[in-house]
Write a structure and sequence with these properties.
This protein is mainly α. The protein contains six helices and no strands.
Length: 157
């Protein structure tokens, strides 16, 4: 069955964002059933080291998802992707999954996936511009679903 670009992005993005939300809920349920403050502290420490930021990992994913399309537009795909790989590894993996779904359905020249940032250095200017546009579309779909699925801590205020 033939799918539109929007369908490909939407299906991949909702799958990734739903996985982020369910992973966080599973961790919260484990903490509630154990009732140990020690487990909660260990989970928070793991979240800080995994994402490179302090605080709620779900909030970090949400804020990264909301700011990443503009980051690509401002800095360029390579620099934005390198930054997000260091800052929030979970988001980087999800973003690559969504973009690779699109590339699998319709490869761009020699680019069949963006497993490594280094592989993007070999692109010519036209392919890099097209891939940047595709990346902005993928990041925008993730942003849409993250804004809905992942809670905003400031909404209560």
């Amino acid at each position: 069955m033939i799918k539109t670009r929007s369908q490909i992005y939407a299906e991949a993005a909702i799958k990734v964002v739903s996985e982020w939300a369910s992973n966080k809920e599973n961790a919260e349920n484990e903490n509630a059933t154990n009732g140990n403050a020690v487990n909660e502290n260990a989970t928070n420490e793991n979240a800080e080291s995994e994402n490179g930021e302090e605080g709620d990992p779900k909030q970090n994913l949400r804020s990264t998802a909301i700011s990443f399309p503009a980051q690509i537009q401002t800095c360029g795909l390579l620099q934005a992707l390198a930054f997000v790989e260091k800052k929030n590894e979970t988001y980087a993996k999800g973003f690559k999954t969504v973009l690779n779904e699109r590339l699998n359905s319709n490869p761009l020249g020699n680019v069949a996936s963006i497993a490594k940032v280094d592989s993007l250095f070999d692109l010519n200017a036209v392919d890099y511009m097209i891939l940047s546009r595709m990346a902005i579309e993928a990041a925008t779909w993730i942003k849409r679903y993250a804004a809905i699925v992942l809670p905003d801590p400031n909404a209560d205020q």
